Structures are given as C-alpha cells and as structure tokens.
# Entry
Amino acid sequence: LKMSTGPNLPYDIVDMEGFALAKVCQAIQIPLISIKYVTDTGDTCDWRANLDSASKAFSAEASELILELSL
# Structure
C-alpha cells in the first residue's frame, strides 16, 4: 500500500474505497487485486455517455489480467 499525506498527492486519482479494502486485506493477510475504470473526468461529463465503451475496455483488461494470473 502506498500512503501519502497532504494535498500534493503524487497520483492522478485516488481510490478511497479500494484503499479501505486494501487496508483490511493487508491487516488480515488476504491478497487483493483491485482494478477500476474511470468513466468521468470530474467535470460536467456525463458518465453514462462513457459507460458502454468503458465497460468494454474494462472487460478486456480484466480478462487479460485474469489470464495472466492463471498462468
């Protein structure tokens, strides 16, 4: 787990929910792989407009990762 404090985080996005899950898994020593796909840019962009392409891209990436992990 990478942790940083203060307003100048060295990341483009922060996954607060994923971080909470990672902390719990780390504490009880359970491996965790978390992947997410960002569907909006934080402005007035409607995430629904990106949902179809995002779900296809996410599915492809997740499938590739699953294949790699099962080898």
Observations:
- The longest helix spans residues 47-69.
- The mean pLDDT is 81.
- The chain has two helices and no strands.
- The helical segments are 16-27, 47-69.
